[in-house]
Each structure stands twice: as structure tokens, then as C-alpha cells.
Amino acid sequence: MKNVVVLGSTGSIGRNTLSVLSDFADRFKVFGFSTNTNTDLLQKQIQRFQPQMVAITDRKGFEAFQKTDETEILFGIAGLKKLCSEPEVDLVINALVGSVGLLPSFEAVESGKDLAIANKETLVIAGGLLIRKAKEKNVRILPIDSEHSAILQCLLTGKKEEVRRLILTASGGPFLDRKKEDLKNIKVKEALSHPTWEMGKKITVDSATLMNKGLEVIEAHWLFDMPADKIRILIHPQSIIHSMVEFVDGSLIAQMSVPDMKIPIQYALFCPERLPTNNRPLDLTQVKNLTFEEPDQEKFPCLEICYQALEMGGTAPAVLNAANELAVKAFLEEKISFVDICEIVTATLKHHQVMENPSLDDILNADKWSRQEAERIINSRSEVGM
Ligand code: MG
User: Fold this and answer.
1) Among the three residues 288, 312, 336, which one is the final residue of a domain in this structure?
2) Spacing, Cα 74 to ligand 1 middle (Å)
3) Of 3, 61, 68, 245, which cross-links 154 as Cys (Cβ 3.0–4.6 Å)?
4) What's the 243 CA to ligand 1 centre distance in angstroms?
């Protein structure tokens, strides 16, 4: 019986994770979980799973919460860190959104817990440090992101030195077939309707700009120790092949399934074991066509900027990520246009003095600097009416 903590249990990945965990209640005990603001759902999850402790990161939500004797209620980032470091906990599943996931990830690894990670920002911002720390502490980092789960599965068919390249697939998002000049008039509502996956707002916008795929390149670089020039992106609108590995003998190994996050979540929980479930199997006669195309770098400049940040190294990916979080927020608040998102990220990165081999503190400082700089750029643009 493993004790599991789910950070971000009220989000899309978190809810799916609790559902998988309840399918395997004989193998896992839900020790604790957390939410930011969705305390109504948290209350229901507490009744259902009866965890030892939960954390609420939003102050108002925490203060208004009806406390009971059975479950300890923790507050803020300190609460998340406590959940990750309790001695009884065996596995932490980080399904937080954004860079708020960073410190809890490090706390889990530092405390010797295996970490299943859906919070890609942790790996983008500080992947090098986290992977090093995990080796030192002899803990496993398991990807939940569907692409990285696919690559992990494909890699099992060969040796590392036999890999020619990793191929990350991308649905292409809702604007795959739009003209470049139409993108600046995209409305928030349009950006929030993803063709194949149902996800939170931030990641849905990231999927529309293809920033999400660029961040996944950085994520793959750290998870699989692969240089940027060996990671390729291929647009595959059906989201059936979740990613592929090309080997030196010309073999291309792909992992396929219906687009359902329960499958990569379960793989992270049991990997490399596979257990039977009721997940819908893939019927290729229903899918009929699997299509592929090169991504349009001009229409989606976020891809190139992610490769550049990886090339720049050091604090650059952290700056890229923070500027993107700020820009996406400004877009959702209708302060900037859809195409401004990448322009703001690019401008912020351009103003940044990269620091090589940063410590966690250096990374946190770069993240803070980037938010201020992106905010400054956003405000100066709206002043001149751009
Ligand atoms: Mg993904």
C-alpha cells in the first residue's frame, strides 16, 4: 500500500488522478491533496477520500473553509511543502499549474519521495537541478504529460545510444488552419476551445500558441537527457500518437491510445507495469486517418523561442516560462492580443542577462525579474495603445 499526495487535486489532471487512484484503492491510499480556490470540490473530495491532511493555497479560501477534526487543513506554499515531506508519504503527484509547482517538487525530491509530474513548469524552469537532485536522493521522476509518457514507453524498446531523435506530436491547437494575419484578432473564447483535449485555461492557451509544445521540448530535454537538436515536433491533429522515438536503424516506435489522461497517469503510477482497466481501447478502424505535418514556425513563433531559450541555457527557460505565464494572464484579461503573447515573451527574454549554472534561488530571482519585466512591457504597450 503506497501513500500518495496529489497536489492540485481539483484541476483536470488532479481529478483524473483521484479517479485512477480510486480504481486501484487496494494499492494506494490517498494521504493528502490540495487546491488553490476550488474549496467546494475539495470538501467533496475530503468526504470521498478521507485524507490525513489537505492544503489550500488561496488565503480567502483557507480562512472561509469549514474545518473538521478528521482532516488537518494546511495553508499556502508551506502547506504544499508539508504535504510533500510527511514521513508516511511514498509518492507525490504534482498536478499544479504554473511555477507555483516548483518548490513543492523540490521539497518532495529532497524528502526522498518519488515524484510523478504533470507540472511541466517545474521541469522547464529548473529541470537540470531537479534531475540532479533526484539522482542524488535516488528517487524517480515520472512524467504524466502524455507526450513524455509516450516517449518513456517508446524508449523501453531500445538503448539510449540507439536513439536518433525524439518526436513530440502536437495537435496543432484550434488555430492550425487559420491564416497568420487572422491570429491577432483571436478572441479569448476561441483560444479556450481545444479540439482534442479538455484542460485548464492556462494550458489551453499554451496549446493554441504552441508554447505548450515548446515547453514540452525543454521538458523532454531534461527528462530524457537529449540535446535540443535531437527533439523534433510534428503536428498530428488527431492526437492518437502521443509521441515517438526514432532509432538509428530507421525504426520509429510510437505510443497510441485514445486521448485520455487516465492512461499516462496510470502508467506513471505503475511504470513499467501495466494493469488492466476499463479505459476505452483504441479502435483504429474508427480513427481511419492519422495525418502529420511540419509545424509552421512563422505562424507559431513560440516554438522557436523555446528552442532559443534552451540554447541560451541557465536562467533563460525560467524567464521564458514566467513571461509566458504573465502574458497568458494578460491575454485572458483581454489586455493584450493573442499574437502579443509571444512578442512579450520574446522581448522579455531579449532583455535578460542569462546566468549560467543557477542555484534554485537564482532561478526564483530570474522568475521574479521576468514577471516584473513582462508586466512593464505589457503596461508600456497598452499606454501607447498598441
Ligand atoms: Mg502534453
Assistant:
1) 312
2) 30
3) 245
4) 10
